[in-house]
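Structure (tokenized):
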């Protein structure tokens, strides 16, 4: 393998299901094909921290996608609680006070490996949505500005669609890990994602991790769907490594 990592560690399976039982069933269907899973608002509300601990006991890495945004004290204390769970990633909206508080909360837990990911612009937003919120910047301008903020305050990464990694890299270089949701293999409907991309497109642009939910969850054979995505990711990472090698 050209890439210096196992590609299965770069595919994050979104457990977008309503219960712990449904989450465990999906994890069992996938087996060892995927080592990293995302727990979002729906599942965390239904199953709580106990489910996160259960996943970790099964050897899974966990991305806790809770998108914190609140007053600093609340974000700081909540982030410290997340850090004590031993999860790998936590999302926080890209607001300076919230991000700074999250970084401070994480630092209160000795030897924590938690990475704080700044949510730049949700993948279901487009320029019209931003204008309705009173934001006159383009999506790309806002994403890159928020990525720069994330790097400035000490976050380890950002969440951004597959359309923005190249612009993020131009702004902040390789300082940040880029995690990309809204991934849809060719031929799969984009659903409610306004800025969806294929695995190959996102990786070619500079994404490091891909989050995939419905294309795997709703497949007739979820493990086969995951394996097909992994194969596409492997080819894309190898091509990107070869391209970088040629530029050196």
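Design, position by position:
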């Amino acid at each position: 393998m050209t890439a210096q990592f196992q590609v299965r560690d770069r595919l994050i399976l979104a457990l977008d299901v309503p219960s712990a039982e449904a989450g465990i069933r999906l994890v069992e269907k996938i087996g060892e094909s995927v080592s990293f899973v995302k727990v979002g608002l729906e599942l965390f509300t239904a199953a709580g921290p106990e489910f996160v601990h259960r996943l970790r006991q099964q050897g899974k890495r966990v991305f806790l996608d809770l998108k914190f945004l609140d007053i600093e004290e609340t974000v700081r204390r909540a982030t410290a609680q997340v850090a004590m769970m031993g999860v790998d990633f936590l999302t926080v909206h890209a607001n300076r006070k919230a991000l700074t508080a999250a970084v401070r909360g994480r630092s209160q837990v000795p030897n924590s490996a938690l990475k704080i990911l700044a949510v730049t612009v949700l993948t279901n937003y487009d320029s019209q949505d931003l204008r309705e919120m009173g934001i006159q910047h383009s999506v790309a301008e806002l994403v890159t500005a928020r990525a720069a903020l994330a790097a400035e305050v000490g976050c380890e990464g950002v969440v951004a669609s597959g359309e923005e990694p190249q612009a993020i890299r131009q702004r902040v270089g390789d300082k940040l890990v880029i995690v990309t949701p809204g991934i849809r293999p060719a031929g799969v409907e984009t659903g409610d994602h306004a800025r969806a991309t294929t695995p190959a497109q996102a990786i070619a642009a500079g994404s490091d991790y891909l989050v995939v939910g419905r294309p795997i969850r709703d497949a007739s054979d979820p493990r086969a769907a995951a394996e097909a995505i992994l194969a596409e990711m492997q080819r894309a990472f190898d091509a990107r490594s070869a391209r970088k090698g040629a530029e050196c």
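Reviewer-requested clarification: The domain at 7-247 is CATH 3.20.20.70 (TIM Barrel). The CA atoms of residues 200 and 236 lie 5 Å apart.
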